[in-house]
Amino acid sequence: MPELERVSPDTELLGRCWDFAEIIVAHPSEHVSGAAYFEVLEQLLNAEGLAESAWPYMKDRTRARTVQMLNFYDVRRPGINRR
Questions:
Q1: Is the pLDDT of residue 46 over 90?
Q2: 1 pLDDT exceeds 90?
Q3: Are 53 and 4 in contact (CB under 8 A)?
Q4: DSSP 3-state assignment of 83?
Q5: pLDDT value at residue 12
Q6: CB 40 within 8 A of CB 66
Q7: What interhelical angle do 60-72 and 11-25 show, nearest 10?
Q8: Going by C-beta distance under 8 Å and a sequence separation of 6 or more, which residues neighbour residue 21?
């Protein structure tokens, strides 16, 4: 998460991190995918702009789960779940 807040983030590092997050979110065990939800995706709610910074690095499943989470908490983010 600190890398997402940097002015010039390490895009290679972020790409690898979100590739890993995608694998965890897609895991068939709810224990594993739930951990990704609480430990990774919910952290995007903690600071303004984190979700928007992470969005370009996310893959399909992680994006879908992020939109679902934002909608559940009634949090609107431009370019993600606010049109």
A1: no
A2: no
A3: yes
A4: coil
A5: 97
A6: no
A7: 80
A8: 36, 40, 41, 58, 62
